[in-house]
Amino acid sequence: MAEEPATKSTERAGWVLTVAKAILWSGAVALSVLGVLMTLGVIDNSGTDAVGRGLSVAFGFLLAADGITSLFALFLARRWPLLFWLAAAMLGAPLLLASVLSFDSKKQQAEYRAETDDLRNGKADFADQPALLAVAEAISRNDEPALRVAAKAAPDLQASGREGKTLLYFAVERALEQPQLIRAVETLLSLGCDPNYNNGQRTSFALAHAVNGEIRLLRTMLDAGGDPNGRDPDGRPIIFGNWTTTFFEAERSARFRLLLDRGADIDSIIPPDANHSAAGYSLLLFRTKMGRGDQTAYADGRELLERGADPSGAAPDGMTLTKMLAEHRRSFVEEQGDLPAELGVLLDWLERHGIRE
């Protein structure tokens, strides 16, 4: 009777071992096939990036090598049983690595989401100033009643958070991504925020940042007294910032004309000592220079000329409007055989007004 439980236990252990071997054989075959397919490029989740494809092939080669070696170890384990455990360890290693990488990836994603949330709700900039943070959180929720209540409790709406960021700049920054928050910008302006305020930090001059947004946002800032000839912390007139970001690209020309209509200097110049590739360029030269990649620049150049911009000015590097356009003409003829319509119209305008190189 005592031998019966022992026999059953032995049978149970043998059955478990058989199942384990079957699982390991199946896993080794699957890993080998997966590795070979990845090495051959049949399975590729890396996209079109050459580096990504190379890493995918290398990873596939390692998986194939691990799987094939495991198969060999399992085959030899019939004679040397210890190799069974080696095969198990080899097959478990990729799973362990994948688990660690997955955990790390999820951790990084959670940290990124937390950082993004902090940027959006103001904690990243105003966490150490509760009164300002309450205003920022109301802005991020687009909650006007809460915004007005929090603003009354704030000792100074012009006060800055980290890196000099002001509440108005924060609101403008958020409105670039969520245009419905333009209403929060309007509320802050109605409560006394100065659209021209600049404490010397780049994240304090909200008007310069508004030049990148919806035209409604820029108009809101100008209607509140924003200076169309204001200068950013580098001394560059804000109108030059109209083409520096990809926010609302379709509204660039409309923003450009709005600034001109509100009195922006048509002969504005980037300070010659500015840390900028176009230092010393006039607005006319600066905008026209973009024509090779953005042919609406020629229409904007003609707009400036029709408003009275000086076509004879020269940049510190000796560049003039006629010289620039001659270079552009040659480039288009050599590369395309003809001229863009906008450039042709601008050249005709210059010809009619007797402006030649």
Description:
This protein has 357 residues and is mainly alpha-helical. The chain has three domains: 15-43 and 56-119; 122-265, Serine Threonine Protein Phosphatase 5, Tetratricopeptide repeat (Alpha Horseshoe), CATH 1.25.40; 268-357, no CATH class. It is built from 15 helices and no strands. The protein has helices at 3-40, 50-76, 82-121, 123-126, 130-141, 144-153, 167-177, 182-190, 206-210, 215-223, 252-261, 283-289, 296-306, 321-336, 341-352. The chain is flat, with a radius of gyration of 33 Å. The model has no long low-confidence stretch (mean pLDDT 87).
Provide key terms for this protein.
single chain, 357 residues, mainly alpha, Serine Threonine Protein Phosphatase 5, Tetratricopeptide repeat, 3 domains, 0% strand, flat
Gist of the model:
By secondary structure, the protein is mainly α.
CATH topology of the largest domain: Serine Threonine Protein Phosphatase 5, Tetratricopeptide repeat
Name of the CATH superfamily of the largest domain: Ankyrin repeat-containing domain
Provide the succession of SSEs: HHHHHHHHHHHHHHH
- Measured between the Cα atoms of the first and last residue, the distance is 114 Å
Q: What is the CATH first-level class name of the largest domain? A: Mainly Alpha
> Mean pLDDT, as a whole number?
87
Write down the overall geometry.
flat
The quaternary state of the protein chains shown equals: single chain
SSE arrangement:
Layout: H1 3-40, H2 50-76, H3 82-121, H4 123-126, H5 130-141, H6 144-153, H7 167-177, H8 182-190, H9 206-210, H10 215-223, H11 252-261, H12 283-289, H13 296-306, H14 321-336, H15 341-352
Helix pairs in contact: 1-2, 1-3, 2-3, 5-6, 5-7, 6-8, 7-8, 8-10, 12-13, 13-15
